[in-house]
Amino acid sequence: MTGTQPAVHSAGKMIGGWIALSRLPFHLVGVIPFLLGTLLAFRLGQVFNLEIFLLGVAAVILIMLSTYHAGEYFDRKEDSISAGIHKNPFAGGSGVMPSGKMPPAVPLYTSVISLSAALAIGIILRFVYQTGPWTLALGFMGALPGFFYSTEPIRLVKRGVGELFIGFCFGWLPIAAACYIQAGTVFPVIHWISLPVGLSIFNVILLNEFPDYEADMISGKKNLLCRLGKEGGRTLYIAAALLVSITMLLSPFFGVPFKVVWFALPVVAIDLYCATTVKRNLYDDPGRLELLCGLTIVVNLGVSISYLLAYAL
Asked: What domains can you pick out in the chain, each with its CATH number?
């Protein structure tokens, strides 16, 4: 009995660490836009294949797992420094690696395995389900920037462009890819819909860099915020937030059902509150900054959900 208890405890610790490492709630930022793209294929193209949808969702989750796990492995130094500075749940990684709950090499292995599994699904979609010649290309557009966001030697996050890739990979790409593998095309309205989605996830990443600013500067990470400084980052966040609200409210002029405006109003209110708060430099308060990080994610999810409701109803 006593011999099995440590093994059970160790297995439970490993499973708990893996779940924390995977940051499952943050998968919504990729899954919901994918749902939106699928709904657009159904509404605008009158097509829906459940098997293709389920395989596509699985691929999206695997790509996000690969991205998150690679980040945990290659950001160990910054995350260890951040752990001693703040406890913001939206920054500094999952906290699993600095706490020593898991061997350092595990997230690297699981990242590569997840990426390989996503590639296998892409091949199945392309050649078994005949989803179109752009299927694998769209998959690579998401998988490679995600994997190399933190992975050396490319490490997009230290080159000042990683945040832009995230805006693309969690904005236009999941909506367009979901629509394409169902309908075989990307409807023009998707290009407009993806603007506020991409801008809002860009702001999520940018604001999440504020709590890690000191740790990133010490480690020489050189992400976009480190290059711009907090003042420059503040200005960029406000500009992107305003564009989120403007592009959402202008959506009906570009083919989106007008009812999206009613769903968008609460999202716009939160978005403008965040922009106003950042403008007043209240992000210097750790508690307020944590709230802003959470609300910025709410804005991102709210944008996608507003479009979902507009087309679903």
From this structure: 14-312 (1.10.600)
